[in-house]
Amino acid sequence: MAKKDYSQLANSILENVGGSANVASVTHCMTRLRFNLKDMSVAKDDTIKGLSSVLGVVRSGGQYQVVIGQTVNEVYDAVVSAGNLTTAAPVNENLDDKPKEKMTWKSVGNTILNKVAGSLTPLIPMLVAASMFKMLAAVTGPSMLNWFSANSDTYKLFTFVGDAGFYFFPIIIGYTSAKQFNTNRILAMFLGAILIDPNLINIVTAGKAFHVFGINMSLVNYSSTLVPIMLSVWVMSYIERFFNKHIVASLRTILSPTLTITVMLPLALCVLGPLGGFIGDGICKGILAFGNMGGIWAILGVAIIGALWEFLVLTGMHLVMISAMTLLFAQGGHDNFVTLGAVAASMAVAGMCLGASFRLKGEERSLALGYTVASIIGGVTEPGLYGVAIRYRRPFVGMMIGGFCGGLYAGIAHCVGYVMVPVANFLALSTYIGGNSANIINGIISGAVAFIVAAIATALLGVESKSKVKTEEAETTHADVSDVAHA
Fold first, then answer.
1. pTM over 0.90
2. CB contact set of 97 (below 8 Å; sequence gap of 6+)
3. Could you report the per-residue pLDDT of 305-335, keeping only the tens digit for each?
4. For the segment 438-476, what is each residue's pLDDT rounded down to a tens digit?
5. What is the SS3 assignment for the chain?
6. Which of 60, 29, 30 is nearest to 45 (CA)?
């Protein structure tokens, strides 16, 4: 089968975001192109949303996001090729060319969200693969099907491959965050490697005092952590630029990296690392404590996340929650709060699409059924969100009702997620594997409740007529979907 050519679409997207000269950098997640533009005001939302294969446009967290869907990899490659956006081009841009923004709490928050999202989004394929191997170890190992004993090579293989995806976070995030902070990526990876060097871990395990250039070092194990390396790379970016600016070219190659790491050793090991660990632990303990509160508040908390998760997706704020989830699984190994609502919400999207298909006819019904399959099998919810929930309005309410009920059941049953599965298809229910059988059964039931309730609620609520939707869209001049309510 011939491979579809996306060059025309790529050229159109680039043209309407202000050309490649306006692109500071571009990456993508599982469904979206994520542009960091030098000037966001020149991007033409309405024109881009009208392009074939584009599902929507979202401005969030300082990024310009073009929703593509399952073919985002191919479109991304075409965009990079069409704009000649090589690896070096976006990173080595002249930062002084960016328009200066007034410092406000909102701009600071957007910047932080943008950097966190840019650092974590490239990790998603690795997290999917690592989580799948952890799930295989749990399902086929002695705790469930017992196909492999704890001493079998296959079980050990699944275990260490799954663990590796989380253990080496400091190195991997060192690379991705270096791209965001415009600093040397290999040097950032080296800094991450220092944080999890076996000798350092042995020092921490021994529990004896250790000093870095005479400064007392906090005994912290940085394996499977995110915040310490992100803070360290951020500070390192300024230190490296300082040395590159003030060291003569003939000595820069040798002295700049050496002096940068020399300065970073006490900063990372004695200040930023412990601070980042404290922040990460605080976030994890806070979220888990909320889930452990018990009673009606904890249960309602999970249900509310289930109801509002896809709204967070539409606004891009779900990345904050995903960051928290990543911290929970990396540092604590489980999550009894955020994951429960997120999984229920994902199942509700598929149920909403199925329910909408009962009220639609012809091609629109076929599309809704296709979105159901794309969601429940392919794990891509955004075609359903934009093609059904946003387009027909009322199904959005049905989806929220389903997510609320699924999350409510998970909260009542005190479910716990043990595997981070950053996919939105039926495999997301595998997050409940790792505990007892009751946890697995109740987790699956919560997903079924979300799916069935969303389908029934959407079928009962119906859809707005096509003519009414078109009239409202004309009156609002195709307002951005992020204003209505965001991969």
1. no
2. 38
3. 899 888 877 766 666 677 777 777 877 778 8
4. 999 999 999 999 999 999 999 999 987 544 444 444 443
5. CCCCCCHHHHHHHHHHCCCHHHEEEEEECCCEEEEEECCHHHCCHHHHHCCCCCCEEEEECCEEEEECCCCHHHHHHHHHHHCCCCCHHHHCCCHHHCCCCCCCHHHHHHHHHHHHHHHHHHHHHHHHHHHHHHHHHHHHCCCCCCCCCCCCHHHHHHHHHHHHHHHCHHHHHHHHHHHHCCCCHHHHHHHHHHHCCHHHHHHHHHCCCCEECCEECCCCCCCCCCHHHHHHHHHHHHHHHHHHHHCCHHHHHHHHHHHHHHHHHHHHHHHHHHHHHHHHHHHHHHHHHHHHCCHHHHHHHHHHHHHHHHHHHHHCCHHHHHHHHHHHHHHCCCECCHHHHHHHHHHHHHHHHHHHHCCCCHHHHHHHHHHHHHHHCCCCCHHHHHHHHHHHCHHHHHHHHHHHHHHHHHHHCCCCECCCCCCCCHHHHHHHCCCCHHHHHHHHHHHHHHHHHHHHHHHHHCCCCHHHHHHHHHHCCCCCHHHHCCC
6. 60
Residue 57, phi then psi, degrees to nearest 5: -135, 135
Q: Are 425 and 31 in contact (CB under 8 A)?
A: no
Whether 392 and 469 have beta carbons less than 8 Å apart is answered as yes
The beta-strand segments (E) located in 29-119 are 32-37, 56-60, 63-67
Alpha carbons 407 and 343: distance in angstroms, whole number: 8
- For residue 87, the tally of other CB atoms under 10 A from its CB is 11
In the chain, the largest separation of any two C-alpha atoms, in whole Å, equals 75
Tokens of 435: 């505990």
Assigned token pair, 412: 């009542």
C-alpha to C-alpha distance for 37 and 20, rounded to whole angstroms: 9
Q: State yes or no: is 284 an active-site residue.
A: no
Residues in the chain: 487
Q: Radius of gyration of the chain from Cα atoms?
A: 24
- Give the position of tokens 């697995």: 440
* Annotated active-site residue in 29, 270, 353, 415: 29
